[in-house]
């Protein structure tokens, strides 16, 4: 592979390429002086990153406070669900109630942690929006209207919230790059959400991890939440097609394993599209 | 009979060799490969007296850190599946096989992504684990998974490249899913127990590179150091 030919070719098509790449130029020069096959062999990964940077959509990055307020909204949603469903006359079977008390307490503490962090940054924590856990945008007659009387409906919503919450947090990680306090806190919440997701999936007798097919991210069989899993079928990580990597089965890796081994992010907009106008009431 | 590719998949015959060791035979052949195989092309080739170092303080060091942990996890689950503990149920066997496949893929991914920058294959030392005992295996699995999560979470802020950070994020949530499953297999309902999730704020605990490598090295013959992150294996 000749990196410099590639760059020359791109320059022919896009005269501004040099400028776009500029911050990385010195890195490239270093590679030349470094000189050996070393750098070149590692290039597929690095080059993909460089090109992605140069051509990344020019959307404004949300501020740290915006990221944390987005997370706070997700936590309000989850904590409200579990606060409403773990009290008297609960829909949850008694022997499984401890699972949801653990999850509820975690979500409530996440709300306070996020509020504290936002305040510490000089921001103002958003207030909780109005929720409709039937998914009916305030009508209470959405697809999950029996959520507080039918345990299986409740579990399905909890499943969607937890798996989607993991994706939402993951999508914000790049926006907190290098911020030790905030990134570490968000990673720590992200891991707890993944623990919850695993547990809820176990209660549903689903695999604790998401085993997508090549065409369908959603492995839950609940078609009303297909959109929540869209993109989980991705098998390209960095620039590596991970189905082309060796496995115990031979020279390739199955799509099931490839998709289960890597969870996929969703952007703020994608998460909002899944929630606003259904679970988050929009007047 | 294993095919050649399966043989190489086991990563320097890790699983088979540690099985032989566990079974009490072939001990003499153990440990010939790894320490001698320090990679000449690593960005900062730092063979230490008894192992390898993660090298210069950059993203490749962090990716190699992850690669080291994934090698360890993969080797562990290869052994678990190869020599199932007594009384293993079909469902436990299927779950542990899934986890093995995920960890092997994580390992292969880092190896492929790092290319010539990758540290060499590490030789594990699972002599402290009784692979015929469910209790011993699940306790070790819990330690590996929980440590993996704390490692990724603790090192995330050290990553300079947003794409690498995102990939670490894609892997750590899968490790957390594993961790929750293993905890529930040991004691149902402990998927987010107070040993791993701080009960005062519900944040998953995290750990420094030094803390993690100290634990990891107790399961490694090839000791991993990170001198630029303040840790040298003893």
Describe the structure.
The complex is a heterodimer of chains A (283) and B (234). Chain A starts with a helix and ends in an 8-residue tail after the last helix. In chain A, helix 4 (64-85) packs antiparallel against helix 6 and helix 6 packs antiparallel against helix 7. Residues 1-58 of chain A have low confidence and may be disordered. Chain A has 2 domains: 3-55, no CATH class; 64-209 and 263-275, Ferritin. Chain A has helices at 3-13, 17-34, 37-55, 64-85, 97-120, 151-172, 180-203, 255-260, 268-275, and strands at residues 236-237, 240-241. By secondary structure, chain A is mostly helical. Helix content of chain A is 54%, strand content 1%. Chain A has a two-stranded antiparallel ribbon. Chain B has 234 residues and is mostly helical. Chain B has helices at 4-9, 14-22, 59-82, 90-114, 134-155, 162-186, 209-217, and strands spanning 51-53, 223-225. In chain B, helix 5 packs antiparallel against helix 6. Chain B is globular, with a radius of gyration of 17 Å. Residues 1-8 and 10-45 of chain B have low confidence and may be disordered. The interface between A and B is large, with 71 and 63 residues.
The name of the CATH superfamily of chain B reads Ferritin, core subunit, four-helix bundle
* Pattern of helices and strands of chain B: HHEHHHHHE
- As a percent range, the share of strand residues of chain A is under 5%
Structural class of chain B: mainly alpha
CATH architectural type of chain B: Up-down Bundle
CATH class of the largest domain in chain A: Mainly Alpha
Low-confidence stretches of chain A: 1-58
Number of domains of chain A: 2
Mean pLDDT score of chain B: 86
Number of helices of chain B: 7
- Largest beta-sheet characterization of chain A: 2 strands, antiparallel
Work out the count of structural domains of chain B: 1
**What would the principal axes of the Cα set say about the shape of chain A?**
globular
Write down the CATH topology of the largest domain in chain A: Ferritin
The span between the termini of chain A is 56 Å
For the largest sheet of chain B, list the strands in their spatial order.
Answer: 1-2
- Order of helical and strand elements of chain A: HHHHHHHEEHH
């Amino acid at each position: 592979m000749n990196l410099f030919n590639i760059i020359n070719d791109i320059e022919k098509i896009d005269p501004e390429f040099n400028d776009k790449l500029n911050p990385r130029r010195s890195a490239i020069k270093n590679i030349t002086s470094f000189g050996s096959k070393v750098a070149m062999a590692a290039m597929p990964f690095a080059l993909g990153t460089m090109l992605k940077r140069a051509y990344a959509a020019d959307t404004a990055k949300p501020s740290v406070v915006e990221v944390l307020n987005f997370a706070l909204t997700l936590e309000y949603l989850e904590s409200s669900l579990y606060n409403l469903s773990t009290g008297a006359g609960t829909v949850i079977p008694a022997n499984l109630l401890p699972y949801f008390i653990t999850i509820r307490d975690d979500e409530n503490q996440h709300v306070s942690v996020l509020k504290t962090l936002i305040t510490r940054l000089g921001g103002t924590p958003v207030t909780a929006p109005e929720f409709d856990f039937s998914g009916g945008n305030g009508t209470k007659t959405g697809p999950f209207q029996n959520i507080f009387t039918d345990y299986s409906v409740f579990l399905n919503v909890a499943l969607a919230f937890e798996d989607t919450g993991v994706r939402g947090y993951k999508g914000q990680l790049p926006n907190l790059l290098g911020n030790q306090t905030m990134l570490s806190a968000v990673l720590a919440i992200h891991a707890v959400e993944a623990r919850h997701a695993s547990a809820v999936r176990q209660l549903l007798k689903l695999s604790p991890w998401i085993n997508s097919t090549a065409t369908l991210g959603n492995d839950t069989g609940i078609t009303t939440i297909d959109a929540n899993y869209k993109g989980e079928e991705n098998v390209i990580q960095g620039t590596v097609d991970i189905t082309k990597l060796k496995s115990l089965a031979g020279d390739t890796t199955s799509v099931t394993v490839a998709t289960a081994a890597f969870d996929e992010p969703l952007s703020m907009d994608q998460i909002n599209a899944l929630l606003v106008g259904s679970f988050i009431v929009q007047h | 009979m294993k095919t050649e590719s399966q043989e190489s998949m086991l990563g320097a015959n890790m699983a088979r060799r540690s099985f032989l060791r566990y079974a009490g035979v072939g001990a003499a052949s153990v440990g010939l490969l790894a320490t001698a195989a320090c990679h000449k092309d690593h960005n900062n080739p730092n063979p230490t007296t008894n192992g390898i170092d993660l090298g210069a303080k950059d993203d490749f060091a962090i990716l190699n850190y992850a690669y080291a942990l994934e090698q360890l996890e993969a080797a562990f689950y290869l052994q678990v599946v190869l020599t199932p503990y007594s009384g293993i149920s079909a469902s436990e066997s299927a779950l542990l096989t899934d986890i093995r496949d995920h960890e092997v893929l994580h390992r292969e991914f880092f190896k492929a992504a790092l290319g010539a920058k990758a540290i060499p294959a590490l030789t594990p030392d699972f002599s402290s684990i009784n692979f015929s005992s469910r209790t011993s295996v699940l306790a070790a699995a819990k330690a590996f998974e929980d440590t993996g999560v704390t490692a990724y979470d603790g090192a995330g802020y050290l990553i300079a490249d947003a794409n690498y950070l995102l990939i670490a994020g894609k892997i750590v949530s899968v490790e957390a899913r594993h961790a929750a499953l293993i905890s529930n297999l040991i004691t149902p309902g402990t998927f987010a127990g107070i040993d791993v999730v701080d009960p005062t704020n519900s944040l998953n605990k995290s750990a420094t590179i030094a803390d993690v490598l100290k634990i990891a090295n107790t399961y490694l013959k090839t000791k991993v150091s990170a001198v630029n992150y303040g840790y040298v294996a003893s």
